[in-house]
Amino acid sequence: MKRSQLPLIELRQATFRLGEQLVFKQVDWFLQKGQHWIVTGPTGAGKTVFCRALLGELLLVGGEYRLRLATRAGRAPEESIEYLTATQWAYDRVEGAPSRWFSLDCEQSPLVADLLSWRAIENINPFEVVARSPEQIARWNRRADRVVQQLDIPFLLERPWLALSDGERRKVALAQVLMRAPRLLILDDPFAGLDAAYRRHVRDLLDDLIRRRTVPLILVSSHSDDWPRGMTHLVHIERLRIAGQGPLNQMKRDPAVARFLHGRQQHVAPPRVGRATPKMNRPGPELVAFQDVRIQWNDTVLLDAVNWTVHAGESWAILGPNGSGKSTLLSYILGDNPRAYASHVRVFGRRRGSGESVWDIKRHMGWISPEFHQAFDASLTGLETVLTGLTDSFALSSVPTARQREQARRELRKMGLLHLAERPFGQLSTGQQRLLLLARALIKAPRLLILDEPCQGLDPASRRAFCAEVDRRIRQGATVLYVTHRPSEIPSSIEHSLQLRAGQAKIVHRKKSS
């Protein structure tokens, strides 16, 4: 067989080792030229592990693994692959970049234009002298301009990295990998954190790459409505093994895949449904109030004249496109944005700047966000992760009592997560980590629960279980602020929405069914 006809990646009766465990035992899988694969599977099934095996990052203990990709001179084939993991999408593309919630000063943050320069893309030390011919520079500039225009991000070029929203950072991360002109592109949940219009834009862009035969694509995604039309094959992962693989149209009809895509896996433990306390019909005490507040980042006004009140027992969805001000609005409530102290914002009945500390406020809140997730300590066990919610910390400052440990176990048991109690946080899938952080946010029964894109990284069944747990808490009287770009992920019990668009905040109350 000619080399041009050989698979780009070949696994033949391959078995890999992950720590002390053998995974993907005696697996056969091939990536042929012209193929583009979807990778699906439940939360924690091993999709990321499978991608690491394709990259050659796992120890091969049996069978064959071959990688046949064209490479640039002096580079290994593995260096021709660009793999954006769920955690790298929005944060790790800038080494050491902190979450903006932990650094309010953007002066030292690089501009997006700097991150898309040829020196940054090729990882050249800023103190290293590297010569480029005028032709090389011109060729690079043409490629960079083309990618920036394709992704519709010229307006971001002069923005500091730390000033970008989660979705905007994802756009920049995608631009970086495309500028490297990879021979194989692996994207893990590339549509998470993007609004509906930009999800369509990215899907069309990926379809364009497929039509132009620019690069083979492997896409890890559980949202079938996001899949580019040009995807050709699907591999379904369960329990660290390949449960099925084949042409996409054929695999969509596979019973196991169909159950997965519709969120009907039998092995996903739903949260326990406890007795719900009837909610009061009249509004409870005021918890959050904005009075004629201007929401802005540095000199950029995102929202003007926001008037909004949240009472105890209410549940709100906060909606709007990328960059509309959702996360900045939350930062005014959480106390992380100093502009809140110059605005008429009250939280738990106290105006910001009246003498309370940030931690006085956060003691009564539970919170999840993509930024918070990335800042979390990967070495903690699942149980320790939940226990940190009692002290609003990122680590255990003291030895927990037996009562506290049982309280954390009870929260894990409610959500079907007790089997993760002794597992290190960093060794879990993104979806499992997100569920643990929900348990952490709930352990102290907070007066206000803030969920910012909480279903990122969850498979359909886990999303349903997550929303069912939030619904249960709402029925018991919890006050919830829920941010998402996907209306299908909004728990059914949420009654109101704050819709942000074109600098305005519009309040919509859901009509109650009679």
Question: How would you describe the overall organization of this protein?
Answer:
This protein has about 525 residues and is of the alpha/beta class. It has three domains: about 1-70 and about 185-265, P-loop containing nucleotide triphosphate hydrolases (Rossmann fold, 3-Layer(aba) Sandwich), CATH 3.40.50; about 100-180, no CATH class; about 285-510, P-loop containing nucleotide triphosphate hydrolases (Rossmann fold), CATH 3.40.50.300. Strands 5-6-7-3-8-9 form a six-stranded mixed β-sheet, with helices on both faces. It is built from 16 helices and 19 strands.
The percentage helix is: 25-40%
Major pleated sheet: 6 strands, mixed
Classification by helices and strands: alpha/beta
Task: Return the CATH architecture of the largest domain.
Answer: 3-Layer(aba) Sandwich
**Rg calc:** 24 Å
Mean pLDDT: 85
> How far is the first residue's CA from the last residue's CA?
70 Å
Poorly predicted spans: 90-104, 265-278
Strand order of the largest sheet: 5-6-7-3-8-9
The gross shape turns out to be: globular
Tally of DSSP β-strands:
19
Count of domain modules = 3
At the first level of CATH, what is the class of the largest domain? Alpha Beta
Layout of helices and strands:
Layout: E1 9-18, E2 21-31, E3 37-40, H1 47-54, E4 59-67, E5 81-84, H2 88-92, H3 112-115, H4 118-121, H5 134-150, H6 166-179, E6 184-188, H7 196-211, E7 217-220, E8 233-238, E9 241-247, H8 248-252, H9 255-261, E10 286-297, E11 300-311, E12 315-319, H10 326-334, E13 345-347, E14 350-351, H11 358-362, E15 365-368, H12 370-374, H13 382-387, H14 402-414, H15 430-442, E16 448-452, H16 460-475, E17 480-483, E18 496-501, E19 504-509
Parallel strand pairs: 3-7, 3-8, 5-6, 6-7, 12-17, 12-18, 15-16, 16-17
Antiparallel strand pairs: 1-2, 1-4, 8-9, 10-11, 10-13, 13-14, 18-19
